[in-house]
Structure formats: C-alpha cells, structure tokens
Amino acid sequence: MAKTDIEIAQEAQLLPIGQVAAKAGFAEEQLEYYGKTKAKVDIHSLRNLPYRAKLVLVTAINPTPAGEGKTTTCVGLADAMNRTGRRTMLCLREPSLGPVFGIKGGAAGGGYAQVVPMEDINLHFTGDFHAVGAANNLCAAMLDNHIQQGNRLNIDPRRVVWKRCLDMNDRQLRNVIDGLGGVMDGVPRPDGFDITVASEVMAAFCLAIDLVDLKERLGRMVVAYTYDRKPVTVADIRAQGAMAALLKDAIKPNLVQTLENNPAFVHGGPFANIAHGCNSVVATTTALKMSDYVITEAGFGADLGAEKFLDIKCRAMGIVPNAVVVVATVRALKYNGGVARADLAAENLAALEAGLPNLEQHVRNVRDVYGLPCAVAVNVFPSDTEAELNMVEHACGRLGVRVTRSEVWEKGSAGGIELAEEVVRLCDQKSDCHFVYDIDASLEEKLNAIATKVYHADGVNLVGPAQNQLTQLEELGFGKLPICVAKTQYSFSDDQKKLGAPRGFRISVRNLQVAAGAGFVVALTGNIMTMPGLPKVPAAESIDVLEDGRIVGLY
Question: Is 72 an annotated catalytic residue?
C-alpha cells in the first residue's frame, strides 16, 4: 500500500532550521526560532541587498477535481534545481485552515515533493493567520466603537463595508445581525464574516514591502462611508498603528525546508479568486536577494493566478518573471474534454484532444499576451498512457513550447531534472514582458482588457449596482488602481460549467469594491463568496491526533 503524504513527511529526516538557514546564506542573528524546524527571518537587516536571482513562476491550467499538482511540481522543481547545483529558494503561500478542514485536507505539496513540517504548515504554523485575523477584528471593533461613542465621523451604519473574519469555512456567519441588546451593547446592523484569507488585511500584508509600507497600506483601507457617501479609512478611526503592532512579527517570512532539506519560504495566503493569490512580496524579494533562482507559484489557473501575479504583484515588486511553467495533467485535460471524474483513469484520446484547448490557451496567454518564455510540465500519473502523453507533447510542440514529464511526486528531485534544465534554458532567453492593461486606463477599460485578452470573452457586462459603483470609484480617485477579478477558478468564463476554452460569452461583473490598502479594485463575478462553506463530508472528519501527539488524516 502506498504511503500517504503525511506518512512520507513524518518519516523525513529534517535538519535543524539553523542549518537550512546557513545553507541559504542567513546569519544566526537574522533568525527568530519557532521550535527546531521553523524560523522567521529578519528582513530589516537585508533591506539594502540587491536582487540577484532569476524568478520562475509556476502556474497551471484551470483546476479540476482530478487535481493538477501545481504545488507538488513547484516543490519538486526547486529540489531539482538545487540537485543540479543551482542555488534555489522556494516561495509558497501558507494554507488556510478553511480548505484544509474542508476539501483539501492539506496544501504543502505531495508525495516526495513536500515542504515540512507538513502538519505545522497546514495548521497553526507560526500564527501569522491568527495575527491577520486579530488585526482585522481589532479594526472592526474600533469601527463599531466609534459609531457607539458618538460617531464623530458621521458614519452611516448602513454603509459599513468592513467585516469580521475567522480562518474557517463557516457559512452560518456569512450574514448576521450584530449589536443586539441594550443601549450599551452597540448599534444593531446587518453584518457578516469573511474567511481570514479573504480579508483585505491579508492582501495588504502580502503586498507590503516592509512594516512601514504595511502600516501605510492599513491606514488607506476603506471601512465605511459617511451619510454623504465619503469614504472612511482605517486612518480615520486611528487603528492602523495598533493593527501594525499585531502584525510586526507576522510580516517576517517563515523559513522551512523541503523533504530534501532545501530552503523554502512559506508566507502569507490570500485567496486566488477573491484576492491576488500569491505568497508575500516580503518573502519573494528576500529570496531574490539570497539565491540564484527563486521558484514561486500563483493560485489556481493562469487566468486567475498568473494574471494577478503579473498585473498586481509584479507591479508592486517592480520585478517580472524570467520564465513561466504551466502545470497540467492528462487526467485534468480529459476532464476538460467531458470525462467524468470516475472514468479519468481509462485512456481516452478523443476526450484528451477535446480538453487540450484549455492548456493551449493558457500557454498562448503566457507567451503571446505577456511575452514570457514558457514551458509545460505534465504531472505524470500511473494511469497516463504513452499515447496520451505523446498527444500532449505533440500539441504543445505545434505551439513551439517544450513539454517535460514531471515525476516529482514519486521520485522527488530526481523526477524533475528535465524540467529544471528546461527552466534554466528559458531563464537565459530574452523576454519582453508586458502587462495586460495600462495602469492609467479606466477601470472599465482594464476589465475589458482582462476579459478579452486573458479569458477570451467578448467583453464585460456591468450588472446590478456595478455601473454606479464603477462611476463612484472613479470619482473618488480609485480609477488608477489595478483590477482583481473574483471569478470561478474552474473556467476561463464566469460559469464553472464552461470547461475547455469557451468562446462567445461575456463576463458579468455584479459588484465592485475598492481595496485601497491592498492597492486594487475587486470585481466580483458569478457567485463568488468571501466565506466558503464546508462540503457534505469535510476533510476534518478524517483528521485526528494520536496518543503520542502525531497527527493523521492530513493528505
């Protein structure tokens, strides 16, 4: 019987994190230890170092229930780069407790390509998410207290846009009435909760370049509007200093290791459909100063993750990738071609051919829309046939893009050598990276650029209150911000049932919200929610802790 991910992780021989840090070039005095296998790194002492590494983005086709193994491929690629003598660091997001206990059951890679300690990373880790939640909820408490204590700012309680949060899937808290009771119990009003990773605090935290920048971003966040519809910010209620104090340790990136004892930053975790879905700028830029190559990933498919990585995060960093890897699986492509999940193990060349346009469109976007060197990594499963793998390779060959077979889940770094060599080759090529839209374009022009160039839609429809919201945001001076589209991850469209590479559709934007601290405008499409619910059978039902303290059931 094959070992589970957690069994593989628990059998690994971890090095003391100080040794991993020394291997990465960090001095002892730059570390703050969280036990034997985790440490935070003092970024202040590294602020004057130049960037020296080449940056590699790992993205994927649209996710399916079959799984793509993007994080696994990312970890295995970093290990393979180090195995072949390239000084490489890995940068990943921290998993949210909501998906861990809901659907995923863990998000630290898989097989022999994992970051460890796997249980800690998937659960409380170093407490960063708790700090983000505490800062978010302090803001909410101070906002409601301001209204209770005389409302000097003339805040309209009906136009409070700030929600409380917790890092758990809990649909019961999506819509609540709070402030019930007597006069001293607050002002009753409709309210609701977001999951912590959907909080703007998380997005601002992950885009800040340092603590000073973070405090400024926190101060700019809009929490409510006055009776005459003027925005009220965190700075207006004087909460940014205390919120930053709660985050002063959290902003330091977390250093851990892979199963092969290579250094990895796991830091920050905004949702990829609601927010920008990338690890922190602080972690990425620190890694760029301390290595020759940095491997990082962006959430979900390239239409969400890579687009936001480039148009939002790269603008914040002032750095673009040298190369991009698009991860795909034969199984996921057959799913895009109409095969039911239960039948994905059987060879089906017709369905594979029908699903290949999804991969081809992602590749064309990376190469032609963004102008970046691109490779395809096929995450190989035992059920894949030679005919199926050859079909994927021939399809990408017609596009002029090389395909490598990734076997890192089974073989660790040894299964990623070919991919590592291709990445190095791509990084040595010249590229002409450009963004999808001009930052000075109007919000509607930016929306249409993303929809037509990346999703290949016919355009955007502003429905419900979206048109008035767009006009108001432009009038308030938020028109020059980047756009963060919140849509389903399962399709290029805003309808998760439209698989492959659909055509003849329009994107319907139903709501526009400013995230002034994060520095973007969120465009909500479809039925995207900021507080997920648990599935009928949550992954939490399989997670347990044994008498000796070992955790089981994470996978």
Answer: yes
